[in-house]
Design goal:
- With 138 residues, the chain is of the alpha+beta class.
- It folds into two domains: 91 residues, 434 Repressor (Amino-terminal Domain); 36 residues.
- Strands 1-2-3 form a three-stranded antiparallel sheet.
- Strand 1 and strand 2 form a beta hairpin.
Length: 138
């Protein structure tokens, strides 16, 4: 289980409210990389293979020299870990804030849909999708 200490910083602009989650217990790319590899339970060699990078490159990021990977390497590493590049590099995780006020009107419908079995939901989803596509084309 991941146990992380973090702070949420909310930045609100007129059109784009968003949150940044700051993970305060890991101060560097190297520490976050060590932590995430340990979390998924792979050896360095196994992780390098999963990420499609050379073990020597991984060692240069994890070792005392704490090299920073290129953007394409960071992307491969983040994808293999299931985290964002932004989190690995900065310790911040961008989270888009959704304005739920426009969805409140559908709460009752969503509550009803949540109790239906999948075999009933599938045709309902198909009908909704069909109507929505027609409306978008107008």
């Amino acid at each position: 289980m991941r146990v992380l200490h973090y702070h949420v910083i909310t930045c609100i602009t007129s059109e784009n409210p968003h949150n940044y989650v700051i993970f305060s217990n890991m101060s560097s790319f190297t520490k976050r990389l060590h932590f995430e590899i340990e979390y998924i339970g792979l050896s360095r060699k196994e992780f390098a293979a999963k990420a499609g990078i050379k073990i020597r490159a991984l060692d240069s990021y994890l070792g005392p020299q704490q090299s920073m990977p290129s953007a394409d390497m960071a992307t491969k590493i983040a994808a293999a870990l299931g985290v964002s590049v932004e989190y690995l590099v900065t310790g911040r995780e961008y989270k888009q804030t959704i304005d739920i006020s426009r969805y409140i009107q559908f709460k009752e419908i969503l509550d009803d849909l949540a109790v239906l079995p999948e075999e009933i939901l599938e045709p309902i989803k198909a009908v909704i999708k069909s109507f929505a596509e027609r409306e978008r084309e107008r």
